[in-house]
Design goal:
2 domains; alpha/beta; 46% helix; 5-stranded mixed beta sheet; D-Maltodextrin-Binding Protein, domain 2
């Protein structure tokens, strides 16, 4: 009887496991069968929010369920990111974030509330962002080589504006300074708009700005673009060279990407990645991204995971060398 009882229990346990596996497989095959929350760890109206709404709207069409953007700003993106890391890994809570939050914040903040690698499953990139090295229209440099010459002739005397200590446009300039061996003085502002306004007004001669915040000022002639900081030219400014055309090997391409909580089933991640690829192939989506100074950029979950590791290592050195901290 004992043998029969053990066998019966084994059979019942096996049947229960099979039922669970079948149920899980069915749930994954039917995914998504209810609305999906897309957490944006920045405020409404910002670049990340705009990109998220463009992509979420198209994913809703592709997968037949609503992808609803949920803004959870605070602490430079750390609050929404940490909350997503703790969400159930079932594909119904996703994070659409930027490289500044995911791979720079861990080196800027004493604590972020999340591990950028262990707490997430990469799904895929959705876009790259354009950033531009700009100067006041009266500044005596018309290209990257002339700016470097000016800085070397006047070490520590040329100021550059940023959106604040530890922001992406601050650290891109620090990367540039380290690469070419120049010394310029950092002037942090409370936001990119204030920094761009003062460059246009001539109070500070140099800055790196996102393409959207630069386009109207460039059109007005108040500032001029020396180069884009991306590895290659961008669609929004096709006639503006990249810094890499003067300084081989230099390049920083900010990105937007989707991550899921760690442990999200591979079948769901792969389905989402395929849907992102379909969404980004849409001409209307591509045009909307270009108007935001961005370009559609898609990769596999494995490629995204490798990019995260590489970017973390790259920005660790830049942040530490710059001395930037946010506590």
């Amino acid at each position: 009887m004992r043998f029969f009882s053990n066998t019966t229990r084994a059979i019942l346990a096996g049947a229960a496991l099979a039922t669970t596996l079948m149920s899980t497989a069915s749930a994954q095959a039917d995914y998504p069968n209810r609305p999906v929350s897309v957490v944006v760890p920045q405020a409404t109206g910002g670049a990340n929010d705009t990109i998220a709404r463009i992509v979420a709207a198209k994913l809703s069409e592709v997968l037949g369920q609503q992808f609803v953007v949920e803004n959870r700003p605070g602490a430079g993106g750390n609050i929404g990111t940490a909350a997503t890391a703790k969400a159930k890994p079932d594909g119904y809570t996703l994070l659409l974030t930027t490289n500044s939050t995911q791979v720079i914040n861990p080196w800027l903040y004493k604590t972020t509330g999340f591990d950028p690698l262990k707490d997430f499953t990469p799904v895929g990139l959705v876009a790259s962002a354009g950033y531009v090295l700009v100067v006041n229209s009266a500044f005596p440099a018309n290209n990257v080589a002339e700016l470097i010459a000016q800085a070397k002739a006047n070490p520590g005397k040329i100021n550059y504006a940023s959106a604040g200590n530890g922001t992406l446009n601050h650290l891109i300039v620090e990367m540039f300074k380290q690469k070419v061996g120049i010394d310029m003085l950092h002037v942090p502002y409370k936001g990119a708009a204030a920094a761009a306004t003062d460059v246009a007004g001539g109070q500070v001669p140099v800055s790196v700005q996102s393409a959207p915040s630069s386009l109207s000022l460039l059109a007005s002639g108040k500032i001029k673009a020396l180069a884009v900081t991306n590895e290659k030219r961008i669609a929004a400014l096709p006639n503006t060279p990249s810094i890499s055309e003067t300084i081989p090997g230099f390049g920083s391409t900010p990105w937007y990407g989707i991550l899921a909580p760690a442990g999200t089933p591979a079948a769901i991640v792969d389905k989402l990645n395929a849907a992102i690829k379909t969404a980004l192939a849409d001409k209307d989506v591509q045009d909307k991204l270009i108007k935001q100074g961005c370009e559609a950029l898609q990769n596999t979950p494995q490629q995204f995971a490798a990019l995260l590791k590489d970017d973390l290592a790259t920005w660790e050195k830049i942040v530490k060398d710059s001395g930037a901290r946010v506590d």
